[in-house]
Structure formats: structure tokens, C-alpha cells
Amino acid sequence: MVGDDLERLREEARGLAVEMVRLLASRRAVVSRIAELKRLAGLDVIQPGIESVLRTAMVEEAKLHGLPAETVHRLASVILADSAAAQERRQGPQLTHMDILRRAVEMQRSGREVQRLEVGEPDLGAPQEVRRAVSEAVFNGFARYVESRGLPELRAAISEHVRERFNVEVGPEKILVTPGGRFAIFLAMKTLLSPGDELLVIDPSWPMYKQCADFVGARPVPIKTRLEDGWTPKIDAVEERISPATKAIILNYPNNPTGKSLSKKYFKQLVELARDRNLTVISDEVYADYTKGEHVTVLGEDLRYVLIQSFSKSYGMTGYRVGYVVADESLISKMASIIGLVMTCVPEFIQHGAMKALTLKETPKQYADIMMRRMDAAVRELGKIGAKFYRPDGGMYVFPEIGLDGVDGMKFALDLLESKGVAVAPGSIFGGYDSFIRISLGAPEESIVKGIRLLGDYLREKGLA
Ligand code: PLP
Prior knowledge:
By secondary structure, the protein is of the alpha/beta class. It is 51% helix and 11% strand. Helix 10 (264-276) links the parallel strand 5 (246-251) and strand 6. It is globular and about 75 Å long. The chain binds pyridoxal-5'-phosphate (PLP). The site of pyridoxal-5'-phosphate has 13 residues, from helix 7.
């Protein structure tokens, strides 16, 4: 008897779940028509006012049925993300940044000279002392399974480094050694965001943020900034995008791709807003040492934050895959358990290399000097070709606008590569900035100067300058 009832109810529950899928499909068809009308009217895909009307209607309905608001907010985020995806879908196969990289390598292999200004990797390499320390560590058998949080000696050294560099006390219990900054960002998102939660991302942004949020089932909510405003996010625009599903905001200053750093005052305003609205700040500060002025950090701020750091840029240790996180102890424990689960630990000999790096007090300054000299050269050359751009405060990129109205940025980048042998990253990948390109300072100065001059020739020949 019980068995029959159970089977009937299960069938009914299945039917209702399938019905929800049908409703989603019908809604998508309506959304496609809305997208068409928005395109005709030149409106943005995401319109916060309209989204909040939908959320409120759903929550009101939920109340009538005694459903938890939290569940309904998650459902709203899934529905809204589906709408945005349906509206953003374009026709035909999309070219990606990887196509440019692949083609540049292919051209170099076939003997052509290519100015490689598309890569996000400094060409400086790790200091000799680090290379030696890692080799010795391998020879001396420092290659065991070790603590998932990282070696106590390294965490103590990071704690000391943070105190010296930023004048902030952070105990080793708040530090986690990670396989690079990228994995640290994944750990932060995986521990802070549940499916349906929202993450605020300030555009232009490093594409990994949105991809990673998507990957953990959360919804990245973009906040557009403009060159005309010096790439400063407007506080009320940030506030407008906060919904009951928003759990965190990711900040990245100095910024990839714009080179923007926020003033201390402005950074604090953003942090205060996050604190008032109970959001966690994920602060990606991997370019902290590549800066012209004083770096503004989230360290020491009185709110829940996750600081992302890396040895890749400050010490040229990209392939070593080592970075670290500073966060409160409960978050560190959760993140450490993920490292334990998937990889046990960062290799012990690599951690020895990181410890050696922290003793080289001059290296980050020397590397930063090289980057800032390259930046000055890039700024000078871009000025000569009449490009509009924000003069970077730091980082390792310049992000000029090159008047590509109506030109597909990805096709532009591929054509520039084929005809002049200059590889750049198209602005479209940083949040739809189609008329911009990102020039990386990860290449030698001669290459940057030559690349920008060739870009100028190309723009003139095409009548774009
Ligand atoms: N964050 C930003 C903004 C970056 O541009 C990069 C690398 O290019 C990283 C984080 C990650 O660097 P890594 O994983 O090498 O530490």
C-alpha cells in the first residue's frame, strides 16, 4: 500500500519538475523576443530595475506558499542567468583569445617575426636564487606530502612579509598557500558562493572571474565602467546591482586590463558599502608590486575579505604555480580542505622556492621598475599614434581605445596579427569592450615599441586613425 502511494507521489513530483523545465523553455522563447526588441532599442542586456521587479514578484509569491525566500532568490538567479545567456548568444562559432595565441605561435614557428603583446605573463623569469633553492630542495628530498595549508615556515614567512610590506598583522592561521593566484580565486568562489548566488564583477575584468563564477554555479553580475570616468566604478551603480542573492564582490587593483588603481578614499568607500551590505570582498592584488604609487590593499580592513596573492608577477614565478590567500580562519579551513581533497598540497620544493623569494627584498622593486619603464614607453608610443587610453597607475597592461565602431574586435586582432605580425588581446573578452585592445607589457621594450608603431601603420592604412 505504502509502496503504491510512494510511487504515485514520486511520479507526480517528477512530472512537476519536468513541467518546470517546460516553463523555462517557454520563458526563454519570450526572452528571445525581448532581446530582439532591446537590440532594436539599443538597451543593455542586464537592467537591474527590471530584475528586482521580477525578484520581488517571486518572493511575494513564495511567501503565499510558505517557501523560504533564500530558495526563491537562488531560483531567481538561475532564471535571470538563463535570460542573460539566451540574450547574449550570438550566431556562428566564436573566435577566442586562444585563437590569437595559437596563430601567433604558429606564425613564429614558421619563421615570421611576431610582437607578442597578447600574453599575460611577465618574461622576467624567477631569480637565480629561487631556481637554485628549488633544485637544492629537490635534491635534498623535500618532496613529501606536507600540510594542505602550506609549510608552517612558509606561512610564518608570509605573515612576516605582510607585516613588513603592508604594516598589517596577519597570523599564519589566516594564511593558505595555494597553487597560484588563479586557483586561489577558484577556492574563494567555491567556498563563498553556492549555486544561484551572485558575484559582482567590475568590468572590464579578467575573464577568469566570470568563467569561475559560472563554473561554481553562481551568477556573475557585471558593473560597467568607462574610460571617460577613468575606469572608476560609480558607487551607486555598484549599489544598484546588489540583490538579496549577492554574496561577494571581486576587486582587482591594479587592474587587468586597464592598469587602473583606486584611490585609498574610493577603495574605502567600496569596502564600506560591501560591509554595510554584508558582502565579502575578494581582492585580487596579484599586481600589488607593479605600481607607480602606493598600493591600496584590503588587508587590515574591518570586514570579511579574501586577499589573493601570487608569486607569479612579483617574482616572475609563473610556472612554479604558487600564491597565497589571506582570509579569516574558518574560510582558510574550508579552502585548505579543498586543496587536501584534490591535490594534497602545493609541492614542498616549490614552497622552498617561495620562501627563498620572500628573502629577496629587492626583486619585486627591480621587476616593477622594468614594467614601469615599459609602461612609459607604451604610453609614449600610443600617444604618438593618437590612441585614447587611461594612463595606467600600475599592472602590466595598457588598454587603448582604437575607434573600432562597427568592427568586430576579435577579427580586428586576427587581421592585425596576419598583416603586421602584432598579437594583442581584443577588448571583447574583458566584458564586451569591442573598440579596445589590451597591450601587455610582458614583452621586451623594443617589442612593445615596434608593436605599437606597427599598430599605428595598420590603423592609418585602414583609415581608422
Ligand atoms: N589575477 C589576475 C588579474 C591575473 O591577471 C592573473 C594572471 O594573469 C592572476 C590573477 C593569476 O596568476 P597566477 O595564477 O599565475 O598566480
